[in-house]
């Protein structure tokens, strides 16, 4: 991406903000920490340099997606605007929630309690269930796109690749056979380390998101990572003789029997591990839905809570 030329102070919708620091750079833009003038409000500003029509359409799609949804574990858009810099380059600006906890990928370099792991898994699954209920497929789920608040709550972010995919017309809704139609996306999207095997064939549904969800769950419990350019990237990886460590989905596309295993000494209950491995099934039809994953996590959490309460009662009785 070409160098951007944003001024230190700029207008984004109805808000005038001051750029304080760069937080990161991704495939779809640069993110800055900004402060609203005259207030103590802090936001994240996503600056997308639109070099072509594809960049522009991705940005518009992200803005429209974020504006159309509201969930406690999905990043909220505050405002949007456009900007033309001194080099006549066109920028789209998105003012969004600021997450001081950084990304989950960065946070996984530190230890975390079983309770915090359960919270992350529940909140990410809750956000994905919500998106799928709204007919939205994220298509780029990975630890870098899971942001954390100061209290370690999840905010699912980066909808540059998301799109609505279940678009049954009114006539289809009354057609018995049409209800069973599956609408597939035929474009390659996502980051190779975290995507499902069927995405490499360009023929996939929302179940590809569920696979990526489990690829996030795996390092939450296992802390598996690969290192590139001095940075650790957390996920589920398989060692191959020809290419070294590759993403599980990529390995499965070449060999459906490829799989990952949990180490006995790592964190996570047997239930959490089963939920993760079930969602990492090669066959999309064998994977649970995001809603089913969420319900299983809630059931496991309830079981843990009941066990703790019973243990406390037994201790008091004794």
Describe this structure in words.
- With about 325 residues, the chain is α+β, with helices and mostly antiparallel strands.
- A 6-stranded antiparallel β-sheet has the order 1-2-3-4-6-5, covered by helices on one side.
- The protein is globular, with a radius of gyration of 21 Å.
- About 40% of the residues are buried.
- About 5% of the residues have low confidence.
Low-confidence stretches: 166-183
Query: Helix fraction?
Result: 25-40%
Distance between the termini: 66 Å
Supply the helix-strand structural class.
Answer: alpha+beta
| Order of helical and strand elements | EEEEHEEHHEEEEHHEEEEHHH
Strand numbers in spatial order across the main sheet = 1-2-3-4-6-5
**Main sheet overview:** 6 strands, antiparallel
Strand content: 15-25%
Q: What's the rounded overall pLDDT mean? A: 85
The Rg value, from CA coordinates, equals 21 Å
Total strands: the figure is 14
Oligomer: single chain
Count the helices. How many? Answer: 8
Shape: globular
List its traits.
single chain, 318 residues, two-stranded antiparallel sheet, 8 helices, globular
Précis, in short:
With 318 residues, the chain is an alpha+beta fold.
Strand and helix layout:
Layout: E1 9-12, E2 15-26, E3 29-36, E4 42-49, H1 53-68, E5 77-84, E6 90-97, H2 104-107, H3 114-133, E7 136-137, E8 146-148, E9 154-156, E10 163-164, H4 170-173, H5 207-222, E11 225-228, E12 231-234, E13 237-240, E14 244-247, H6 248-254, H7 270-279, H8 290-317
Antiparallel strand pairs: 1-2, 2-3, 3-4, 4-6, 5-6, 7-10, 8-9, 11-12, 13-14
Helix pairs in contact: 3-5, 3-8, 5-7, 7-8
């Amino acid at each position: 991406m070409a160098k951007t030329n944003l001024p230190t102070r700029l207008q984004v919708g109805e808000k005038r903000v001051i750029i304080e620091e760069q937080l990161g750079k991704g495939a779809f833009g640069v993110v800055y920490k900004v402060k609203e003038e005259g207030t103590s409000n802090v936001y994240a500003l996503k600056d997308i340099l639109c070099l072509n029509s594809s960049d522009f359409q991705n940005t518009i799609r992200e803005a429209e997606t974020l504006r159309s949804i509201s969930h406690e574990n999905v990043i909220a858009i505050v405002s949007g605007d456009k900007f033309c810099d001194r080099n006549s380059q066109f920028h789209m600006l998105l003012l969004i929630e600021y997450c001081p906890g950084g990304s989950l990928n960065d946070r996984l370099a530190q230890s975390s309690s079983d309770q915090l792991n359960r919270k992350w898994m529940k909140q990410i699954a809750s956000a994905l269930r919500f998106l799928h209920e709204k007919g939205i497929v994220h298509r780029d789920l990975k630890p870098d796109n899971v942001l954390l608040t100061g209290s370690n709550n999840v905010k699912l972010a980066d909808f540059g690749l998301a799109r609505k995919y279940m678009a049954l017309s009114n006539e289809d809704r009354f057609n018995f056979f049409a209800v069973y139609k599956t609408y597939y996306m035929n474009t390659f999207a996502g980051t190779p380390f975290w995507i499902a095997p069927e995405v490499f064939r360009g023929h996939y549904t929302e179940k590809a998101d569920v696979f990526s969800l489990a690829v996030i769950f795996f390092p939450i419990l296992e802390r598996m990572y690969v290192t590139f350019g001095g940075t650790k990237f957390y996920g589920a990886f398989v060692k191959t003789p020809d290419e070294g460590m590759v993403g599980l989905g990529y390995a499965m596309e070449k060999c459906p029997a490829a799989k990952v295993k949990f180490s006995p000494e790592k964190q996570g209950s047997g239930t959490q591990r089963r939920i993760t491995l079930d969602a990492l099934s090669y066959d999309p039809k064998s994977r649970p839905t995001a809603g089913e994953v969420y319900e299983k996590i809630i059931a496991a959490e309830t079981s843990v809570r009941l066990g703790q309460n019973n243990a406390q009662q037994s201790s008091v009785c004794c």
